[in-house]
Write a structure and sequence with these properties.
The complex is a heterodimer of chains A (285) and B (175).
Chain A lengths: L6 E3 L4 H11 L3 E4 L5 H6 L7 E4 L9 E4 L2 E5 L4 H6 L1 H6 L1 H6 L6 H6 L2 H7 L7 H6 L3 E6 L2 E6 H4 E3 L2 E2 L6 E7 L7 E7 L6 E12 L2 E10 L6 E2 L1 H7 L6 H8 L2 H4 L11 H21 L1
Parallel strand pairs in A: 1-3, 2-3
Antiparallel strand pairs in A: 4-5, 5-10, 6-7, 6-10, 8-9, 11-12, 12-13, 13-14
Chain B lengths: L13 E7 L2 E7 L5 H8 L18 E4 L2 E4 L12 E3 L1 H4 L14 H8 L9 H14 L5 H7 L11 H13 L4
Parallel strand pairs in B: 1-5
Antiparallel strand pairs in B: 1-2, 3-4, 3-5
The chains are: A alpha+beta (285), B alpha+beta (175).
The structure holds flavin-adenine dinucleotide (FAD) and FE2/S2 (inorganic) cluster (2 copies).
């Protein structure tokens, strides 16, 4: 398990990092927590000439307030998101998702931003980030641009990121209340999601006044369950109503994944069950 | 799929300086060298085991600046100017609360509670358990099992490992 030879750079500033990427283009790879990149290097699925380590860039390893919401820097690890007080207060869905990722060692190094850049269809973060309407802030030689998470993730292992661009941070545009949950079925060796559902909702007079449902693991890419959301919007959230709405998950997308871990039909069934569990858990939270 | 490359597989060696078990080590390494192999092959610290080399088993777990990490999933270059503690360095600080000065309380727990059989998983298991007790001094059984999720054991069935961690928690004054 020896990666191809590459040169290693650890730039001191983001500008310097962008400059190296501009020079090498697609022959360079950004390294954050390394927990997707290094396995890929070892299998020689990735064979860059240059690895650019951004994990120690100043100012990127923190969670900050940003307007009425918050910003998660590219160096922020899954573990930090489990324990950060600002996250717990302003965005509990993120705090509840983080402990579901991998294991302790993976969470100690892996980053949220690295995860969305890798865009594994079985990754957990896309589900809550879709539900929270996250914005991805990208810097490149031509300056800065921002994409909604839904546009950023293109498909399986692909994003809208160009080879010379770096994601600086993910912004959650506003604060969210405690009525939220993330439920998943893990692939037992790696912990990745065979199916995962994130729910963020609000209630008024026992009725659901807003609901956002992000689903990951089951299709080519994570998606918002818009049909289910529409059925639950304005409804009283009793078990029967939720169960009925959850059935529509099979109509949300037409590219359910089938692999050695689970068939497409089984994934759809899991997604349906997890939508119910996550909505009920969000109500109870 | 693997990409054929036009350039020969040689890269510039990199000078790194790592504090390993309290002592500074300077070496020139290939950037692609994994921390695991740096520790075992360059420094002869073979207490850190190579189980799967695919980030799953946790036998290679060491502390990087106090965080338990899988050294097979880290470049030696990433440890440059940082602190590594391996199983060989865990026992040393005699000032550790509850320490006899010989073994770390978690090591003592594994000894006392029969927390190992073949011992292959043990160094990594002990580092992860030490991390767990730093973060949750009085863990429940559930928390212990979750805290050790990244470490696999083919022998013990985990029960004695859980007891070893409980022993250490009591020793450290948490449980
Ligand atoms: C054993 C194991 C179990 C895991 N279990 C889970 C799980 O249960 N759920 C889950 O969601 N994930 C899981 N993961 C993946 C883990 O969460 C990774 O940490 C994550 O996918 C990638 O983050 P990273 O910081 O390690 O990124 P890296 O590996 O450093 O980078 C990943 C990719 O993104 C690019 N990249 C990284 N940061 C940036 C940036 N700021 N700008 C531009 N490009 C960037 C890199 O070039 C690379 O292509 C697991 C990984 C392992 C090894
Ligand atoms: S050898 Fe590193 S996790 Fe198995
Ligand atoms: S004691 Fe043999 S693998 Fe754990």
């Amino acid at each position: 398990m020896i990666p191809v030879a590459f040169d290693y750079h650890r730039p001191r500033t983001l500008e310097e990092a962008v400059d190296i990427l501009r020079q090498y283009g697609d022959e360079a790879k950004v390294l954050a927590g390394g927990h997707s990149l290094i396995p890929a290097l070892k299998l020689r699925l990735a064979a860059p000439k240059v690895v650019v380590d951004i994990s120690r860039l100043p100012g990127l390893s923190e969670v900050r307030r940003s307007g009425s919401g918050l910003s998660i820097g590219a160096g922020v690890t899954h573990h930090q998101l489990m324990v950060d007080p600002l996250i717990a207060k302003l965005c509990p869905l993120i705090a509840r998702t983080a402990p579901e990722i991998g294991d302790v060692q993976v969470r100690n190094l892996g980053t949220l931003v690295g995860s969305i850049c890798h865009a594994d269809p079985a990754a957990d973060w896309p589900a809550p980030l879709l539900a929270l309407e996250a914005q991805v802030v990208i810097v490149g030689p031509e300056g800065e641009r921002t994409l909604h998470i839904n546009e950023f993730i293109e498909g399986m292992l692909t994003t809208r990121l160009a080879g010379h661009e770096i994601v600086r941070e993910v912004v959650i545009p506003r604060a969210y209340p405690a009525s939220c949950a993330y439920k998943k079925i893990r692939q037992s060796a790696s912990g990745f999601a065979i199916a995962g559902v994130a729910v963020q909702l609000e209630k008024k007079n026992r009725k659901c006044s807003s609901i956002a449902i992000g689903v990951t693991g089951v299709a080519q890419r994570a998606f918002r369950a818009r049909l289910i959301e529409k059925s639950l919007q304005g409804a009283e959230l009793d078990e029967k109503t939720i169960a009925q709405a959850a059935r529509q998950v099979t109509e949300e997308v037409n590219d359910f994944l089938s692999d050695l871990h689970a068939s497409a039909a089984y994934r759809a069934a899991l997604a349906q069950v997890l939508v119910q569990r996550a909505v009920l858990a969000a109500l109870a939270a | 799929m693997p990409m054929p490359r036009s350039t020969p597989s040689l890269s510039k060696k990199l000078a790194i300086s790592v504090t390993v078990n309290g002592g500074e080590v300077r070496r020139e390494v290939e950037p692609r060298l994994l921390l695991l192999h740096f520790l075992r092959d360059e420094l002869g610290l073979t207490g850190t085991h190579c189980g799967c080399e695919t980030s799953i088993c946790g036998a290679c777990t060491v502390f990087l600046d106090g965080r338990a990490v899988k050294s097979c999933t880290l470049l030696a270059a990433q440890a440059d100017r940082r602190q590594i503690t391996t199983i060989e360095g865990l026992a040393a600080p005699a000032h550790q609360p509850g320490s006899s000065g010989k073994l770390h309380p978690v090591q003592e727990g594994f000894w006392e509670c029969h927390g190992l059989q073949c011992g292959f998983c043990t160094p990594g298991m002990i580092i992860s358990a030490a991390q767990l007790l730093e973060r949750a001094p009085n863990p429940s059984e559930e928390e212990i099992r979750r805290g050790l999720e990244g470490n696999l054991c083919r022998c013990t069935g985990y029960q004695h490992i859980v007891e070893a961690v409980r022993y250490a928690a009591r020793k450290l004054g948490g449980g």
